[in-house]
Inverse folding.
């Protein structure tokens, strides 16, 4: 979290209730999670007595009657108008938000990290990068912020939204009660075990891992099986083409790419499925997981990002991406009817906490301070303190780099050590500072569930965002780690930044170019005490006496 509060407590100080509550989204699509949520929220707002419209820059033809052009919002908004800004990809709508009258709040769906698209789609990778820039820009124009998971709230907190909180994901369960398409159901209910995946075919969903798991399942456990993929696949797109090529290479039987399906076809897929499989590496909230639970299909999911939180202890969440191990989970669900029944029942209990009426009420209660015009309490600002970023500290606190990081922090007043949690928690919490002796430690949730065998820490979107928002001196205790590579060139020009690296993990050319002579090498056997003192002097621009 940044050391200086960036929250403008003077914004939105009006105490009158909103006369109209509208929503702004870059694109309104039919059938995707964001589009469904936006339309359902509009219906809730109207049911609570507010005038409510959806504004977007682009929309599907099927959504034409649900949307107004985004540029019209500045004309339509008044002082008593409230706007919910949905953010998940580059929108180019920050200037519109800035100049529009009325109060504004942010609903953050999370932004897929750009690294997933590097090498396959430069346009989308850049859009993800710019979307995180926009996330920082929006701070100055909103009075409240919510996300749909603790995992996403953690990033909002790191980005300088101090009062961000979780907004319950209000699911319109009735929308799933569509009779199955009879023809498709008859086609796939032929005695095969049907493994289902639903979603966009993008690199973060790891459809290639779904293929590998299914291939292992078919060859090791159930030869009479089928993989159903409900999601558009374009053979001309680089990633999609690589997925099709992998299918040919692996050679499993009965892999069916259904493309985009309508509601009846999707119902047929779920009605015919023996299991739902997700190997996604990044989810701000996983609606298809809940849909599978609602339809009584047992879920097997890789526990990355907000997936464990969405699952809520139900289904089977795995921390392994080994195809044979995950295939074994699919097999045991099929072969053990008693276990399958327990899993399905646990999923039903998970959904009980998401009862449509009670969740709608919780959403209303969460939004009410914003709708009534209450401003969040002002947050006291703090002076710029030193931040030491050591991603591997939590996993290996006794490693030389970790000991060095702790020694530097302990020498500087108000300094803190930022690290990546050892693994994803069942319920992620916004990063809070903890004391370990005299050391102030702040832990951030990783995007991936475990550290690699070589000790390399997994990426953490919230840590990367937090680093970009630091206002004081910064030390990368691990200048060869991904967090340094992705953030060092995007720090403010006046940031005092240094780095330490180990021979086994050297910094890349970009980090070397930015840090120059402010790079130190931690060679085996080097005296940590003297190096810590040298680094503390480099970072301590205030000239404070060193503790030791």
């Amino acid at each position: 979290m940044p050391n200086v509060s960036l929250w403008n407590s003077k914004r939105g100080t009006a105490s009158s209730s909103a006369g109209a509550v509208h929503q702004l989204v870059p694109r309104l699509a039919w059938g995707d999670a964001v589009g469904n949520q936006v339309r359902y929220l509009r219906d809730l707002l109207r049911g609570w007595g507010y005038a409510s419209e959806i504004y977007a820059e682009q929309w599907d033809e099927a959504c034409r009657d649900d949307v107004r052009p985004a540029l019209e919002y500045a004309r339509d908004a008044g002082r008593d108008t409230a706007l919910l800004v949905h953010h998940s990809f580059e929108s180019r709508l920050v200037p519109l938000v800035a100049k529009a009258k009325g109060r504004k709040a942010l609903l953050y769906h999370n932004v897929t990290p750009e690294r997933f698209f590097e090498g396959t789609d430069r346009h989308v990778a850049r859009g993800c990068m710019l979307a995180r820039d926009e996330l920082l820009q929006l701070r100055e124009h909103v009075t409240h912020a919510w996300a749909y998971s603790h995992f996403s709230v953690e990033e909002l907190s790191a980005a300088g939204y101090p009062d961000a909180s979780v907004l319950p994901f209000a699911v319109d369960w009735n929308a799933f009660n569509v009779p199955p398409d009879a023809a498709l159901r008859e086609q796939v209910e032929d005695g095969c075990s049907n493994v289902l995946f639903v979603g966009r075919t993008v690199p973060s969903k790891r459809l290639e891992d779904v293929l590998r798991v299914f291939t292992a399942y078919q060859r090791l456990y159930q030869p009479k099986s089928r993989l159903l993929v409900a999601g558009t696949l374009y053979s001309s797109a680089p990633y999609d083409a690589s997925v099709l090529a992998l299918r040919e290479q692996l050679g499993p039987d009965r892999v069916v790419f259904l493309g985009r399906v309508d509601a009846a076809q999707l119902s047929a897929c779920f009605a015919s499925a023996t299991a739902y499989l997700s190997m996604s590496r990044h989810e701000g909230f996983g609606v298809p997981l809940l849909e599978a639970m609602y339809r009584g299909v047992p879920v097997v999911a890789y526990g990355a990002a907000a997936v464990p939180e969405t699952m809520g202890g139900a289904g089977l969440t795995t921390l392994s991406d080994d195809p044979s191990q995950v295939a074994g989970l699919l097999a045991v669900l099929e072969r053990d009817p008693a276990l399958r029944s327990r899993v399905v029942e646990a999923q039903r209990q998970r959904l009980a906490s998401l009862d449509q009426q009670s969740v709608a009420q919780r959403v209303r209660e969460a939004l009410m301070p914003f709708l009534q015009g209450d401003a969040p309490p002002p947050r006291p600002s703090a002076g710029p303190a030193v931040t030491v970023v050591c991603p591997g500290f939590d996993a290996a606190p006794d490693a030389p780099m970790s000991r060095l990081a702790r020694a530097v922090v302990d020498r500087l007043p108000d300094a803190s050590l930022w690290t990546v949690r050892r693994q994803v928690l069942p319920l992620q919490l916004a990063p809070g500072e903890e004391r370990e002796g005299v050391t102030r430690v702040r832990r951030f949730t990783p995007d991936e569930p475990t550290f690699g065998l070589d000790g390399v820490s997994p990426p953490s979107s919230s840590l990367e965002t937090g680093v970009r928002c630091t206002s004081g001196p910064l030390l990368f205790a691990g200048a060869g780690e991904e967090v340094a590579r992705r953030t060092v060139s995007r720090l403010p020009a006046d940031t005092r930044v240094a780095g330490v690296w180990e021979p086994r993990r050297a910094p890349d050319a970009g980090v070397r170019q930015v840090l120059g002579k402010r790079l130190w090498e931690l060679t085996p056997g080097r005296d940590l005490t003297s190096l810590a003192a040298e680094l503390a002097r480099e970072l301590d621009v205030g000239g404070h006496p060193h503790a030791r």
User: Anything to note?
Assistant: The domain at 177-353 is CATH 3.40.50.2000 (Rossmann fold). The chain has three domains: 20-171+357-371, 177-353, 387-539. The CA atoms of residues 329 and 541 lie 55 Å apart. Confidence is low (pLDDT under 50) at residues 1-15, 543-548.
